[in-house]
Design brief:
Two copies of one chain form a homodimer. Chain A is α/β, with parallel strands linked by helices. Helices cover 32% and strands 23% of the residues of chain A. Chain A is globular and about 70 Å long.
């Protein structure tokens, strides 16, 4: 009996993958989720781990816990390597996983646009390990600068922090860094903080491309007020771990480059039989099927969907979760022998970014055109707390945010990568 | 003026070191704390990080935060390597730190008693990194066993967990592991949990040497009730990562050995001019001065104090914090030109260990001879919450313990050591 259940395989346990699995869990199907991590990561709050506001496990939720009561959902911890559509198996580093239908919801990774030196020396902002590395590194820079009594140039380089990319992640990271530095300033009694600086680099001529020019201007003003040096039209050409070289030949001395300037689909989707478009995303038809490959669907950051829109849909969580609903319904139609599938239509619900303690911008397309300041920050907090998985996580996170708002202290400032 | 302040150097930011620095902070002296980590670690709760109850930053507190308002206290992040008493400098991997008086409060490390294979293949339980390694490894064993469909012997080896050492740490770790396994059992829908076992090995003929025979018996009973296989008089001779070999030649197949069977002083104290005793601890006189070395004191786990007691004082936090008071007063006497120093006398305040959710044993030497069960667990919780540093930490920890008590869930079950 159980052998006759259709086997649904979902690759990736991000927003899209978890949304899919929750729907399939209620159906008479066998579900396998493949992910290389055993947790779902709440990526929008990675910057808070990287700046010592939250703990790792507050934004990471065990995948199995979602499906505790669903015996038909199995988790398979492995790194997906491709899809063999002929043989109907997903290839992984822990063997093959057979499927009747597979949905790729594998997400994206950092795009260094081929600059190998930059990739080697700077920090990505996509994984939990990367966020922890940033926290450890930034705190370490202060400890090292504090001990560096001879080489003033090197000390300044250690105290110069650069975030590349004026999207939500870059804005949030730069804003949170300035606040972290304020906390540190109270505790380094002998370090000259006039030497400390935070820089935000953006290749275009403005930040946050998805919000109105008005909000863009406001964001830059708030960042500047927080002490962030905002460099627009600043195109990075190289970084050797000590100095950034710009396209125009000028340099910026720094020991810290956090790269939030671009993403691309995880590379394995190129090995799934379909064609890839811009950003390495796998091209899907209006029904979210990988074009030209039977029984394979794709959603979210790893899928290239361009039907009725001037560009491919953006790589944001709402696209993935909306696509998850349609992909689910379409797979179930096939399971039930129907061939007429539903086309996907994206509803843009607006966007938001926080610029630090008590400051945010919200671009809401319908109800209210735009919000800024404390009220926007409350909206941001509310939306993110609602979406965070897990009862005790929500409560401890809410508590830490309140504590952080009122006291300005950050107790997560521990350096954990010391050996022995 | 500031240059004339006596320079007090404290090596180690454990219970003893922090207690010392807090006292010196109020005096007209310059204080430097040296530690290789930037945080004070609440070691008694390491087992809770290793079993996914608490987050890392809930038992680690930034050292600088203690001394935010004390401009005369400086933190120096480095690994101490020795003391040059002639030149009055502490040697570190980041250069020399001059002192007028130095107090060694550097703590202890795991003692594998010269068994190199055991050291190579098993997990210590003394550092935050080790606790996180244990959590990652144990969770990984379940994920790997779940995928191991061919080799039944290997699967069983992965599901066999061994804790060596019947002291408080070993007891607590074994108890917490059985509870973690109960949580996992609800979420691995296809794994045979009759194959899972937890073993506690103790070389002596009983556990918890510091409590009464009555409490020892009770502890073993509670452990057995929780499903722990308690092996007394079990002496480990070797471990190759797959099987433990006992002194009597028998073997136990396992992929996981957690070594809580012994500690020794951190090795650098042997390089401080004095003599070392049992466990590599540096021998101190009744006034806590390192014997034969001027202006060098030692307290806590790294100090060997045996005056009026049949054995050296035990390596527990109360010894360190009580010694910190006398060492402080004695150093201040020297600062003020007095030569008559105070002798140290230890007050044994009893001991406690928790055996899991709602179960503990408390051996109180004076007020109440002994406590067990839920009331003992409440006492344990109360004492540990009181001693935990940091306001928000206490509250989130208290909340997680309540959540854990009532729901039995552990949301910290994330595997964080995956490299892409």
């Amino acid at each position: 009996m159980a052998d006759k259940q259709p086997r649904i395989v979902i690759v990736g346990a991000g927003f899209g993958g978890i949304a899919l699995a929750k729907q399939f869990a209620r159906e008479d199907v066998q579900v396998t989720i493949i992910d290389r991590h055993n947790f779902h990561l709440f990526q929008p709050l990675l910057y808070q781990v990287s700046t010592a506001i939250l703990s790792e496990d507050e934004i990471a939720y065990p995948i199995r816990t979602f499906f505790r009561d669903n015996a038909n959902v199995e988790f398979f911890m492995a790194k997906a390597q491709g899809v063999d559509a002929e043989r109907h198996v997903v290839l992984t580093d822990h063997g093959e996983v057979p499927y009747d239908y597979v949905i790729l919801a594998a997400g994206a990774t950092t795009n260094f646009f081929g600059m190998e030196n930059v990739e080697k020396h700077s920090f990505g902002m996509k994984t939990l390990a990367e966020a922890t590395h940033i926290r450890n590194h930034v705190l370490h820079m202060f400890e090292r600068a504090n001990k560096e009594l001879v080489d003033a140039e090197e000390r300044k380089r250690m105290l110069t922090f650069v975030v590349v990319g004026g999207g939500a992640t870059g804005i949030e990271e730069a804003g949170a860094l300035t606040e972290l530095i304020q906390v540190l300033q109270k505790e380094f009694h002998h370090l000259d903080f006039s030497q400390v600086s935070v820089h935000l680099l953006e290749a275009m001529d403005t930040v946050l491309p998805m919000v109105s020019p008005n909000l863009q201007k406001h964001t830059i003003e708030v960042l500047k007020k927080k002490g962030v040096h905002v460099h627009l039209q600043a195109q990075v050409a190289d970084y050797d771990g000590k100095a950034i070289t710009f396209k125009d030949g000028t340099q910026l001395q720094t020991r810290t480059v956090i790269w939030a300037a671009g993403i691309k689909a995880v590379p394995f989707v190129a090995n799934c039989g379909g064609q890839t478009g811009r950003g390495g995303r796998i091209i899907v038809d209006e029904q979210l099927r990988v074009e030209g490959v039977k029984d394979v669907f794709a959603i979210g950051d790893c899928a290239y969907f361009q039907h009725g829109t001037p560009r491919a849909l953006p790589t944001v969580a709402p696209v993935a979760t909306q696509e998850a609903k349609v992909a689910f319904r379409n797979v179930m139609k096939l399971v039930h022998g129907q061939q007429e599938l539903e086309a996907f239509h994206y509803k843009d619900l607006g966007s938001m970014a926080t610029i630090g303690r008590g400051e945010a911008v919200v671009n809401k397309t319908k109800i209210n055109p735009e919000l800024t300041g404390f009220i926007a920050w409350c909206a941001w907090m509310f939306v993110h707390l609602l979406r965070l998985a897990g009862a005790h996580t929500n409560v401890t996170v809410a508590m830490k945010w309140c504590w952080n708002l009122f006291s300005g202290t950050r107790l997560g400032r521990i350096i954990t990568n010391i050996q022995d």
